[in-house]
Design goal:
The protein has 228 residues and is α/β, with parallel strands linked by helices. It contains nine helices and six strands. The chain has a six-stranded mixed β-sheet with strand order 2-1-3-6-5-4, sandwiched between helices. Strand 4 and strand 5 form a beta hairpin. It starts with a helix and ends with a helix.
C-alpha cells in the first residue's frame, strides 16, 4: 500500500473514531494525542509572525530622535502632536519616525536617585549608538554635557543664515578644553514650550555632537524658529 493510500486510510479511521465520541472525549483525545503537533504548529506560526513583523518594521526609518530632560510640568508633555506637525512640515509618511521622550530627570547631585542613574545610563547608551540627535533641557545639563563635549559647536554646525537668525538666543558653555562654545538655543522664545506643555526654565536645545541626521536637525530647528 502506498503512503498516500495508507495516510488516507488512517485519516478515515481517526474521523470514524472521533465521530463516535462525545465532545468532551473528542477534546481530550485531540489534546492527548496531537498536542505536540499543535504546539509545533503554534511555534511555527509564531516564528513566521516574528520574522514578518521584523521584516515589516525594518522598512521604518527614524528621522529624528530627541529627549526632554527635567520637565517640571505636572502634566505629561504632548510631544506627539508637535512631532506630527513636524512630520507634516517635512512631508513624512507613516514609516518615517520621530522618536521623543519627556519623562527623564537628572540633577547630577551627590545622592542621585535610581531615576537619575537610569536617565544617565539611557543618555549614554543613546549617544554611544548615535541614536540621539537633540537634547532639550535646562542650563545644568547643558553645562554638564558640554563639559563632556557632547554638544556640537553651533557656529560651526549651523548654516550662516540660521546662525544669524538665532541671535541672542544662543547659550554658551565650557567644553572639556576650557573653551567657551555656543552649544544651545533658548526654546522659550519659540512655540515649543507652549505647544508641548514642557516647562523648563531656561529651556535649551543642544545638538548632539556625533549625530548623523544633520539635515533633519536643521529642518527641525528651522521649523521651531519659523513658527509664530
Amino acid at each position: 500500500m502506498s503512503f498516500k493510500e495508507n495516510f488516507k486510510k488512517e485519516s478515515q479511521k481517526e474521523r470514524e473514531k472521533l465521530k463516535n465520541m462525545c465532545w468532551s472525549d473528542r477534546i481530550w483525545y485531540i489534546w492527548e494525542y496531537y498536542k505536540l503537533h499543535m504546539l509545533a504548529m503554534a511555534g511555527l506560526f509564531l516564528v513566521i509572525y516574528l520574522i514578518g513583523n521584523m521584516a515589516y518594521h525594518s522598512t521604518f526609518e527614524t528621522r529624528l530622535s530627541y529627549i526632554v530632560v527635567n520637565n517640571t510640568s505636572m502634566e505629561p508633555a504632548d510631544l506627539d502632536s508637535f512631532n506630527q506637525r513636524f512630520k507634516d512640515y517635512m512631508n513624512y509618511g507613516k514609516k518615517d519616525l520621530i522618536s521623543s521622550e519627556s519623562s527623564l530627570y537628572m540633577q547630577h547631585s551627590d545622592r542621585a536617585s535610581e531615576l537619575e542613574y537610569a536617565t544617565m545610563a539611557k543618555v549614554s547608551a543613546l549617544v554611544a549608538s548615535q541614536d540621539l540627535d537633540l537634547m532639550i533641557t535646562d542650563q545644568l545639563n547643558i553645562d554638564h554635557y558640554m563639559a563632556l563635549d557632547a554638544f556640537a559647536n553651533l557656529e560651526q554646525f549651523l548654516p550662516e543664515e540660521l546662525w544669524n537668525r538665532i541671535g541672542d538666543s544662543v547659550y554658551y558653555a565650557v567644553n572639556s578644553e576650557g573653551q567657551t562654545i555656543p552649544c544651545a538655543i533658548d526654546l522659550n522664545k519659540t512655540v515649543f514650550p507652549e505647544e508641548t506643555g514642557v516647562i523648563i526654565n531656561p529651556c535649551y536645545v543642544g545638538v548632539i555632537s556625533n549625530s548623523v541626521r544633520t539635515d533633519t536637525i536643521l529642518s527641525w530647528l528651522r521649523f521651531v524658529l519659523e513658527e509664530p
